[in-house]
């Protein structure tokens, strides 16, 4: 029995040293979420706005090396495995980029823009999109 425990410990240490264990845990969580979602209810179709928002979040997560969180987001949200083209995102959001802004996620530029501009009172009026509907049970 002790050799099995030693083997488990050695495998765990090796996987941790290689950086594989956190990825395996994240993938397992993603698969569990996916299995639970399949059993309860099908996901509503991903709206265009949600696709853009989720892709902005994924780009941010990958940039900050939150790859495990990004893999769970991808699995849980129904995002395609392949990232959307950054230029496509910039065009959809009507964002102009220069060389320095291309080195960081688009979300950084958007947040910076709204923090440094806006109306005279420092506030921006947000309007809900017509194709975005709150999920069932969400607070109104």
Gyration radius, in Å: 20 Å
Number of domains: 1
Shape type: extended
* Range of strand content: under 5%
Structure description:
- With 140 residues, this protein is mainly alpha-helical.
- It has a single domain, classed as Mitochondrial Import Receptor Subunit Tom20, Chain A, CATH 1.20.960.
- It has helices spanning 2-17, 21-40, 48-63, 67-77, 86-93, 106-116.
- Helix 2 (21-40) packs parallel to helix 4 (67-77) and helix 3 (48-63) packs antiparallel against helix 4.
- The radius of gyration is 20 Å and the shape is extended.
- 6% of the residues are buried.
- The model has no long low-confidence stretch (mean pLDDT 79).
Q: Features of this protein?
A:
140 residues, mainly alpha, Mitochondrial Import Receptor Subunit Tom20, Chain A
Give a nutshell description of this structure.
This protein is mainly α and 140 residues long.
Write the layout of secondary structure elements.
Layout (H helix, E strand, L loop, with lengths): L1 H16 L3 H20 L7 H16 L3 H11 L8 H8 L12 H11 L24
Subcellular location: Cytoplasm, Cytoskeleton, Cilium basal body; Cytoplasm, Cytoskeleton, Microtubule organizing center, Centrosome, Centriolar satellite; Cytoplasmic granule
Family: Belongs to the CEP43 family.
Function: Involved in the biogenesis of cilia. Required for the recruitment of PLK1 to centrosomes and S phase progression.
